[in-house]
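job 3f2a | input accepted
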Amino acid sequence: MNRITTLLILAGAIGVGLLLYRLLVPPQEDVESFLGHHWERPIPFQGPPPAAFSDLEASLDPQSCAQCHAEQHADWKQSLHSETFSPGLRWQLQLMTPEQGKSCLQCHAPMSEQVTLVAAERGWPGAPAEAPPAHIPRDLHEQGLACAACHVRKHERVGPPPRDPNIDPEQGPHGGFTAKAAFKDSRFCAACHQFPEDGPRVNGKLRENTVVQWQQSRHAEEGRTCQRCHMPGRRHQWRGIHDPAMTASALETTFQVSDDRVVAAVSNTGAGHHFPTYMVPEIELRLERVAADGKRQALAREIIAWRTNLALTEELFDTRIKSGETRELEADLSPALAQNESLELVMAVAPRRLYERTFEDYQQRQGDKLDPAVRALLTLSIAEAKNSHYQRILARYPARVAN
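job 3f2a | predicted structure (403 res):
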């Protein structure tokens, strides 16, 4: 057998092998392609459940999911994803046109079943008069970003590939599930946490730009996804700016102290995006001198935020700390720090500061003219925003165990 014949036989064998591989191993759907139809808005109606499904398998109620996925449901229940249909949204929906309301629902209650329930509740044109079928709970819209919004399409369950190789995704209740790598990809989160290029901007900046911020950070280069920080161990907690420990973990603080000067350097080392990422929260950093008796003297302070006017058309300032950047608070230290004194860098967080400003302004201008039910929701939403405030000591000098 000559060399050419051998090469032809080898090439043929490779070709046959590739053909068999393609027949036996279906091609993986491109992540972008999958997400393009997975996050169609509103999420299309699931339709009638398969005849073989039990009532439990057919149900879109998160509580039904909890029967087998108790830990995930418990985490979700404590997360902001379960609260996206909040009083702050509900009072505004009562003043919106159907088109405005449906725009908000794209992220706050994105399933067609949820939009229909809101339409019926609000009396929007075209809303069905009949009650929803049994597999749709009457309060599904009030449950915000429910389990089915991410994991159910046409009654088919979808999720990330199993971590246990012994688990067969096609086995189990509701016909098992279809494994998709996109659930482990940061782009999965972009549907709600990244506006498109033609989305609304302030001073040229997209109002929601978290995924792009991540893509431009070292976290993306190192393969640290959104899920790694916000869903560690696949926990459905999505902790963020509302969580003191999570917020503090984004920052590292160092002190440089001399007899007459102190510099506190604050670095955004832990967040794969700006700190904070968008315009709603505000953080006050305070450098304080603490006497032995606990009395405090403010030495320096800075507001870390992207503040706009209430119409969201004009930027007032943007002092956010980009991922990897450092901000310094500097102050005179005279007289020199005594042995029984200390320095503290305190972080005071208002997670919903923009909502507070906007809602309070509306309450002052229109409160007496509002329907009592709307006014009650507005008052409740302001209280919830204010109750979300918290403080945390980021660092002390001399170093001691922080709170």
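job 3f2a | The first strand starts at residue 152 and ends at 153.
job 3f2a | closed
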